[in-house]
Amino acid sequence: MRSFEFGNGNRDLAIVTVDCKIKWYSLAKYEGQILREITSVHRACISSIGMSNNSGFMLTGGEDNMLKVWDYEADKTLPYFYQCFIGHTGTINSLMFNKRNNQQVFSCGPKDGLYIWSFYGDTKTPFHYASERPEKDANLSAMSASKN
User: Which residue, 27, 30, 57, 84, is most buried by CB atoms nearer than 10 A?
Assistant: First the structure.
């Protein structure tokens, strides 16, 4: 294991493995059930990982000098969907969302110091896995039934 980050109210764990894959585990039942594995994340090893407050977005930084922001639900299909921030001239050793509002991403490396990036993704809406989302039709049925 190279790096890890908790998400989804500490119910999930994202791990960067030595072979540069990202594995997501659910800790909801204390069994460490694997939710998904993402391969070919960077062109070189991943050195850092971070999560937004709502766990809908994940940051990865690597030895390829790139910072990537991943949408949790969008990366289920190939090709993966991510936003890439390019500017570092060396390995990204540490990164994180601004804990106050998640509208900024901080990244740093030994060669070029601290970078501050603007991020405009929806990090305020509580994140739910597709399997956990309430059905819209069920909500509409319940609303119309309560009006009658």
Answer: 57
Work out how many domains the chain is built from and give that number. Answer: 1
Q: What is the pLDDT along the chain (148 residues), one digit of tens a residue?
A: 888 888 877 888 888 888 888 888 988 877 788 888 877 778 788 888 998 888 888 899 988 899 988 887 664 555 556 778 889 999 999 999 998 888 899 999 999 889 999 988 777 777 665 555 444 444 433 433 444 4
- The CATH code of the domain that includes 30 is 2.130.10.10
Read off the pTM: 0.74
| 8 Å CB contact between 106 and 118 | no
- What's the CA angle centered on 94, arms 90 and 96, to 5 degrees? 125
Q: What DSSP string runs through 52-93?
A: -TTSSEEEEEETTSEEEEEETTGGGSSSPPEEEEE--SS---
DSSP annotation of 32: -
Q: Tell me the HSE value of 68 on the side-chain side, using a 13 A CA sphere.
A: 20
Q: How far apart are CA 11 and CA 110, in angstroms?
A: 32
Range of the domain at 63: 3-147
